[in-house]
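fyi for ur records
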Amino acid sequence: MRDRFNRVIYVGKARDLRKRVGSYFLPSKAAQADLKTRAMLDSVWDFETHTVQSEAESLLLEGKLIKEFRPRYNVSFRDDKRFLLVKVDPTEEWPRFRLARFKKDDGARYFGPYAHADLRRMMALATSALMHTPARCDKRSTLCAKNSAC
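which gave:
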């Protein structure tokens, strides 16, 4: 939603956009809305929509737009953190999975973004286990002692 100065004031997502937007403007719902919601509705001048293919994609897009525009009426996603990426550098003798928040032009391959850090960490650990490489370098590891996979 944008205000009369074309500033983004709210970013939201809905499975059924017609129902979501319509619910804001029903007289019975508008009367029950809190002060902040009523102020937002009074400020709305225009709508912009984006169509995506999945729920996960909508969540990522919503977070990206909130971080980019920092709308007045959105509270969540306003921190400065970025979504997580999995980084693999194929130039290393033993490529490892690493965590990253920014893509760099360093020749590495980046996978993601991932909204949930725990899921991505579990994936990196599972993949490392399948490839028989440690997820983190540990100098006490027998693999490290043999100069491999660390």
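Residues 55-69 form the longest helix (15 residues). thats all i got for now
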